[in-house]
Design brief:
By secondary structure, the protein is α+β, with helices and mostly antiparallel strands. 25% of the residues lie in helices and 23% in strands. The protein contains 9 helices and 10 strands. A 10-stranded antiparallel β-barrel has the order 1-2-3-4-5-6-7-8-9-10, surrounded by 4 helices. A hairpin with a 6-residue loop joins strand 3 (114-120) and strand 4 (127-133). The N and C termini lie close together (5 Å).
Length: 314
């Protein structure tokens, strides 16, 4: 498992050496006794690989997300393991917040469980992020969210449900991820106005090569991020998520000679225009900041499925 992750890191930075916390995460995962499925069981990525890297023009160093523990670890233990790892690195969530996350998973069906993320760069203190699933039948405690976001969530289309709550203790930052039903993107307008992003669709329309038509018919996810202690919602940042394969119906690197104009918006890998062999794009995140006419694109990267097969047990 270490070799394909090293190749991803090399694709992003030009250096194959893993930063310390990512290296420790890989060690935990490849110690699995279920070696037959150790690199293809996770719901974190479209191929089942339990580690994802993220590329974006503003990311310095390596940004990653990984399963907390190997596949044989029960889902009910993963949140505790994640908070323990955060505490060991001096980034423990406040007790009341940890209790709130535990209540989001108690007694409900868990599909994604808990993930651990990190951002590591030379000379900078690493920052960790905990991703805790909100169970299918669990209620998200409103006290974990700013009041304006609670009001805005009520204006999302029917069938929307909270999926994951992300916590970054070192930045005092939280992020709620929700699953959207099949919608037209204009169905988000009531939510966008309430949450303080009335211009969001106009920004998307200006910066996506095909405007908001690029998102038509595609299954989208949504996240809202804010700093702890803020209740007015003025600084809530949003992101829309879509599969790279749906945003790129024809890959600009497929050799077909067809150039997809969205490629100009997507960050390149180290020295390569587009994806390298052995690297697959996962989710594309389209970030929006209130009051800014900019679209912040980031892309998740995982090893291609054929490379994972070769590395089983590695």
């Amino acid at each position: 498992m270490r070799e394909p992750v090293s190749r991803l890191v090399s694709a992003l930075t030009g250096k194959a050496e893993l930063p310390p916390l990512l290296s420790a995460a890989v060690d935990r995962l490849q110690s699995s006794s279920w070696y037959e499925v150790a690199n293809r069981w996770s719901r974190l990525t479209p191929t089942g690989f339990p580690v994802e890297l993220t590329t974006a023009s503003w990311i310095q160093g390596v940004q990653w997300t990984a399963e907390v523990a190997p596949p044989e670890t029960p889902d009910t233990e993963r949140l505790f393991l994640a908070t323990t790892l955060l505490a060991a690195n001096g980034q423990e969530p406040p007790p009341q917040l940890a209790d709130g996350l535990a209540s989001c998973q108690a007694g409900g069906e868990i599909r994604f469980g808990t993930w651990l993320g990190g951002r590591e760069a030379p000379g900078v203190t690493p920052k960790l992020k905990l991703y805790a699933e909100v169970a299918e039948n669990a209620a998200l405690p409103p006290e974990l969210l700013p009041g304006r976001l609670v009001s805005a969530l009520r204006r999302l289309p029917a069938g929307t449900r909270p999926r994951i709550l992300g916590i970054q203790p070192a930045r005092e930052r939280r992020e709620l991820y929700v699953r959207l039903p099949a919608i037209d993107v204009v169905d988000l307008l009531p939510f966008l106005h309430t949450v303080g992003h009335p211009e969001a669709l106009a920004v998307l329309n200006r910066h996506l090569p095909d405007g908001i038509r690029r998102l038509a018919g595609r299954r989208l996810g949504l996240s809202a991020a804010w700093s702890e202690g803020e209740d007015d919602g003025d600084t809530i940042a949003l992101a829309l998520f879509a599969s790279a394969r749906t945003l790129f119906p024809v890959s600009p690197t497929s050799g077909s000679g067809v150039h997809d104009p969205l490629a100009s918006c997507v960050p390149t890998l180290h020295g390569v225009d587009g994806a390298q062999p052995g690297v697959r794009r996962g989710l594309v995140a389209m970030g929006l900041e209130p009051g800014r006419d900019e679209l912040y694109i980031s892309v998740g990267l995982v090893p291609a499925a054929e490379e994972q097969t070769e590395m089983v047990g590695g």
